[in-house]
Write a structure and sequence with these properties.
The chain is α/β, with parallel strands linked by helices and about 300 residues long. It has helices at about 5-30, 45-60, 75-85, 105-110, 125-130, 140-150, 170-180, 195-200, 250, 265-285, and strands at about 5, 35-40, 65-70, 95, 160-165, 185-190, 205, 225-230, 230-235, 240-245, 260.
Length: about 300
């Protein structure tokens, strides 16, 4: 039976350190970091995420600014709002909740965000900085995966990691972070041949495909560490709605050395890392030292 990697507890510890850092910024520099979240449309899951982000932002002592816009907002209207937020000194981080409605080009919107306020780390310049190994705002879910791995494995150097999924928001940045940790990285995707046997060779499996319970026990090397990024809402055979990951937890937890549950694994880390990025962004904008609590 595997060790369960408790993302909920780790995220709560990180939020505690963030709260300390926020209070230090207030006392030493009279600064209160501010995070603006922009939501366009009525996607129910996005509304839940935005509410949770705003609540946690306020809980750690930061200012939260919410912009909820109608589904028919035009691309130019959204660009204008982001440019306004770019100019506001009280806004240190800007996040545009994805997905955006079809009439809006997400890439243009993300690249309109001031690169130093891009707390999601999706701006092309932050992606380039991450890939070239220089200092950047790192995407939140990948940053959360790395914290969970560092908590589980003392020295990541030399480990073989397979990442299932090559999206710009999860798969590729996780790959860059693990390369930086001196892992040997394989990135697999829907065209990878014989995925189970490629997967079996890895010491670390990170699943980010969006396919419910794709990874089975016979895909995983005994003792491997498994990080499940997937969030899939399914209806089970009894008609109950439930949340499952991209890993078949029931069977894989019998062979893995350590595994994240869904929910309660990667999910809680994502928002905590967003708050951490907001502090990092604030300190860089004001050219002050990042408080040791979150260094
Ligand atoms: P995308 O849909 O953008 O990318 C999915 C990737 O998985 C693609 O690279 C695709 O390959 C690959 N893929 C799809 N099916 C298979 C398959 N059968 N075998 C191998 N590879 C496959 O997804 P995201 O990266 O945005 O998200 C992945 C999952 O993570 C989702 O469940 C999402 O909900 C979750 N998520 C969770 C977050 C959290 O906070 N916990 C945050 C972000 C995402 P190809 O490129 O060839 O099409």
């Amino acid at each position: 039976m595997s060790t369960v990697i408790d993302g909920k507890t780790l995220a709560s510890k990180l939020r505690f350190s963030i709260k300390q850092a926020v209070s230090e910024l207030k006392i030493e520099h009279n600064i209160v970091p501010g995070l603006a979240v922009v939501l366009v449309g009525q996607d129910p899951a996005s509304h839940v995420y935005v509410k949770s982000k705003a609540r946690q932002t306020v809980e750690v002592g930061m200012h939260s600014f919410e912009h909820r816009l109608p589904e028919n907002t035009s691309e130019n209207e959204l660009v204008d709002i982001i440019e306004e937020l770019n100019q506001k000194p009280e806004v240190n981080g800007i996040l545009v909740q994805l997905p955006l409605p079809d009439q809006i080009n997400s890439e243009r919107i993300i690249n309109t965000i001031n690169v130093n306020k891009d707390v999601d780390g999706f701006h092309i310049e932050n992606i380039g900085r991450l890939s070239s190994g220089s200092s950047s705002l790192v995407p939140c879910t990948p940053a959360g995966c790395l914290i969970l791995l560092r908590h589980t494995i003392e020295n990541l150097s030399g480990h073989h990691a397979i990442i299932l999924g090559r999206s710009n928001i999860v798969g590729k940045p996780v790959g860059q972070l693990l390369l930086k940790e001196n892992c040997t990285v394989t990135i697999a995707h829907s065209k990878t041949r014989d995925l189970p046997s490629v997967c079996q060779r890895a010491d670390i499996v990170i699943a980010a495909v969006g396919v419910p319970e794709l990874v089975k026990d016979n895909w995983v090397k005994p003792g491997a560490t498994v990080i499940d990024v997937g969030i899939n809402r399914i209806t089970d055979s009894l008609g109950n709605k439930k949340l499952v990951g991209d890993v078949d937890y029931e069977s894989v937890s019998q062979v893995a050395g350590a595994i994240t549950p869904v929910p309660g694994g990667v999910g809680p880390m994502t928002i905590a890392c967003l708050l951490q990025n907001t502090i990092i962004a604030t300190c860089r904008q004001r050219q002050i030292r990042i408080p040791p609590a979150i260094e």
